[in-house]
TrEMBL record:
This is Ribosomal protein S13. GO terms for biological process: translation. Belongs to the universal ribosomal protein uS13 family. Keywords: Mitochondrion, Ribonucleoprotein, Ribosomal protein. The keyword Ribosomal protein applies. InterPro entries: Rbsml_uS13_C, Ribosomal_uS13, Ribosomal_uS13-like_H2TH.
Length: 117
């Protein structure tokens, strides 16, 4: 297992798919990273050299991406801000109701079941 950016990456997967395991890196970002570094889409994580790993870390650092705990904290702070300013979306979150305009006339009970703040 390769430990990169506070995340364990599986060795048997390609670098493209392994990078998507990092919270905050999706398919498009992983694709652009592989393309900029000239990696093949079939390059496995176990075949990476130490220099290639350093290149990945430097490129991600230069992109100024928020990843893992930093991104999770940012998202939770945004939700807490909505609640603290008592916006409509914040009040809907507190009450456990749908936030984005979904129907509540018949589905309010089922929508409340799955929501956790």
């Amino acid at each position: 297992m390769l430990y990169l950016l506070e995340t364990k990456l599986p060795e048997n997967k390609s670098v493209f798919f392994a990078l998507t395991n990092v919270y905050g890196i999706g398919k498009s970002t992983a694709f652009s990273i592989c393309k900029k570094l000239g990696f093949s889409m079939n390059l496995k994580t176990k075949d990476l050299t130490q220099e290639q790993i350093i290149e990945i870390l430097q490129l991600i650092d230069s992109l100024n991406l928020k990843l893992n705990n930093e991104l999770k904290n940012l998202r939770s702070m945004n939700l807490k801000t909505l609640v603290s300013i008592k916006s409509y979306r914040g009040l809907r979150r507190v009450r456990g109701l749908p936030v984005r305009g979904q129907r509540t006339h018949t589905n309010a009970k089922s929508s409340r079941k799955g929501r956790r703040f």
